[in-house]
């Protein structure tokens, strides 16, 4: 009787071990890859994904869909590297380790830096409006969209080390006059600070907030008020 019980226990143990091994062998691993613009959060539909294993062998090639995503079954349990390549963006590589049945890889795509085209320096005393300079609403905080234009101005100043400029800030006539002057001055100083961080000497820069004193269009419509909210520079 004892022998029968022992044999039965061994049989059960062997069956459980075999079942566990079978489940381990049949376990599947998937990867979901997502690529989106680091700032706008828009999907990068041109992204191509390349998955390599620990030996450097490429095991998967995937293309992002309309949502910037791709998914596939991985060959097996191992460590992988996922490379993301998209035109106009920096190439990024992320690891996939400690596999789970579902593995998510998210790429925050960074636009590739283009060669900066410096702004043309105008004649002395002529005001030039800087394009695409944006601030947070009712705030002197520069938004990231302003970077290309300010980088172009910085490059122009680097290439023309003898010139000095005055940065002028303007608002529309909505709200309190004194507060508008203060806001425009703070925005000028934000631009000045940005240029200094780019290597422009402080002595070459002046800033003046003009508030609503110098409109370039009547403040009779939102479109005109938008034109009046601007940042200019003048060669001294």
TrEMBL record:
Name the UniProt key words of this record, in alphabetical order.
Cell outer membrane, Membrane, Signal
Predominant location: membrane
Which PANTHER family does this chain map to? LIPOPROTEIN YIAD-RELATED, STATOR ELEMENT OF FLAGELLAR MOTOR COMPLEX
Q: Which SUPFAM superfamilies would you find in this protein's record?
A: OmpA-like
Give the signal peptide as a residue range, or say none if absent: 1-20
Q: Please give the residue ranges the record annotates as the region Disordered.
A: 206-228
The UniProt record lists the OmpA-like domain at: 123-236
- Compartments it resides in: Cell outer membrane
Kindly give the InterPro entries that the UniProt entry links to this protein.
Answer: Bact_OuterMem_StrucFunc, OMP_bac, OmpA-like, OmpA-like_sf
The answer to whether UniProt assigns keyword Signal to this entry is yes
The name on file for this protein is OmpA/MotB domain protein
Q: Does the record bear Membrane in its keywords?
A: yes
One GO cellular component, as annotated: cell outer membrane
Which CDD domains would you find in this protein's record?
Answer: OmpA_C-like
């Amino acid at each position: 009787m004892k022998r029968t019980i022992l044999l039965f226990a061994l049989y059960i143990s062997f069956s459980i071990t075999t079942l566990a091994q079978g489940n381990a062998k049949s376990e599947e691993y998937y990867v979901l890859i997502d690529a989106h613009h680091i700032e706008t959060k828009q999907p990068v539909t041109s992204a191509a994904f390349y998955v390599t294993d620990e030996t450097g062998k490429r095991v998967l090639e995937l293309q992002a869909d309309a949502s910037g995503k791709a998914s596939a079954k991985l060959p097996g349990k191992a460590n992988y590297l996922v490379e993301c390549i998209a035109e106009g963006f920096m190439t990024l590589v992320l690891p996939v380790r400690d596999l789970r049945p579902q593995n998510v890889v998210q790429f925050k795509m960074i636009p590739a830096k283009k060669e900066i085209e410096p702004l043309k320096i105008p004649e002395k005393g002529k005001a030039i409006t800087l394009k695409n300079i944006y601030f947070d609403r009712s705030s002197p905080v520069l938004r990231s969209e302003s970077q290309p234009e300010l980088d172009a101005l910085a490059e122009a100043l680097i290439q023309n080390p003898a010139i000095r400029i005055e940065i002028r800030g303007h608002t529309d006539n909505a709200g309190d006059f004194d507060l508008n002057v203060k806001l425009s001055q703070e925005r000028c100083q934000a631009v000045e600070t940005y240029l200094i961080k780019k290597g422009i000497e402080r002595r070459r820069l002046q800033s003046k907030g003009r508030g609503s004193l110098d409109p370039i269009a009547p403040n009779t419509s939102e479109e005109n008020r938008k034109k009046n909210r601007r940042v200019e520079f003048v060669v001294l």
